[in-house]
Amino acid sequence: METYGCSLSEFDSLTMASILESRGYARAESPEEADVVIINTCAVRLDTEYRMVERITELRGRAKRLVVAGCLAKSRPGLVARVAPEASLVSPQNATRIAEAVESSGRVVLLQGRRDTSWMPVPPLRDRIATIMIEEGCLNDCSFCISKHARRELRSYPPRLIVETVARLVEKGAREVRLTGLDTAAYGRDLPGRPTLADLVSMILDKVEGDYRIRIGMMTPELVLDILGDLLDVYRDERVFKFFHIPVQSGDDGILKIMNRKYTVSEFKELHSKVKARFPDSMFATDIIVGHPGEGEEEFMATVRLVEELQFERVHLAQYSIRPHTKAAAMKQVPDPVKKERSRRLMRIIEEIGERIHRRYIGMKVRALVTERSFRSWSMTARLDNYFPVVLPLREELMGEWVDVIVEDASFFDLRGRIVGERVEAVELV
User: Fold this and answer.
1) Interior CA angle at 189 toward 184 and 192, to 5°?
2) At the N or C end, where does the chain have fewer CB atoms within 10 A?
């Protein structure tokens, strides 16, 4: 099985793997050794789609049987069928039916139906991190987004099921639990009683004991504003990372309207201000799209000014990418050279701000939770209470432990430090 894309794709792969392993299947080391190859795809951007097509083409010649699952299978089934006409197709909503595709004697197409939220696999830990999908789908209709075609309907997992899964993960040794979804702020609006994201996190904190941390995933601004008071109260608990991922996408109201976003720049600033008033040291991450149809130099500069004003701790910057079946695809496009030039200009500002914020920590003694091995084989990553990453020399015995760290250097990407103590008690970020 190969998995591409976001944490939702990771969760779907865990679901499929759990089902197949319960039926006696085992992981193969390579496509050539496998009886069946499953590629769980992403379709969020055009360049991603190109990579998916290239990989599917490669796997056709190496796999005895091929299953294409995930967002590309759901949103672009015709494209997949042209590239690999013999491959079975499984949408994200049908991940629980993966055995049908694997065990059928012929090609199977499972693209219709709703996600089964009556059960949830207990995902394996990656180091000391676990990821749980709490909901799929969103309530928006953004002009640029193809994900809504792959994961359209809002389907929330029942609070009881999520709480039970978190409890089992903490028992297994999870120290960081990531709650993910296409829009976690939409959680519960499809459930009886309409429990909110704040209600869910409060239930987890009340019912699951242990020294763990919750990281809440991406939330849309307008739905966060609906629950902001209760949500900020939940964030007061030391077991919730002071991490907010709330995409703004543009600093211009006209572009936000073209994007069909349901908030204004002023409302977003108000949201940011309220978060920072309660948690001034928190990490406020956002997403920005450069070069969306309708964006001129004036609109772009409004985004630049917003970034300079709000001083985001982290910005995920993307150039607009045409996606089929979206409203923006039919609009007049900003030329690629213009998009690239604006992206470079804004990225320089984002990097300067990010590095400046990180460098404030140099020389400070901080507390951090070690949760994962870094991509560098010699290092590990620990997280401050505001989720800032600190890269440390690898010491296996400290995985899952709180450590005292002296920050010695910093870059736009992370802090760098050395351990001066270990196994210290956790305290709440003030």
Assistant:
1) 130
2) C
Q: Are strands 129-136 and 155-156 parallel, antiparallel or unpaired?
A: antiparallel
Strand 379-383, strand 176-181: pairing: unpaired
**φ, ψ for residue 150 (rounded to 5)?**
-85, -30
pTM over 0.90: yes
Whether 232 contacts 278, CB under 8 Å = yes
CA 77 from chain center: how many Å? 24
Pairing of strands 213-216, 176-181: parallel
Lookup: tokens for 65: 């049987």
For the chain, which domains are there? 2-110 (3.40.50.280), 116-241 (3.30.750.210), 252-359 (3.30.750.200), 365-422 (2.40.50.140)
Q: What is the pLDDT of residues 276-300, one digit of tens each?
A: 999 999 999 999 999 999 999 999 9
Q: What angle do CA 108, 36, 9 make, to 5 degrees?
A: 75
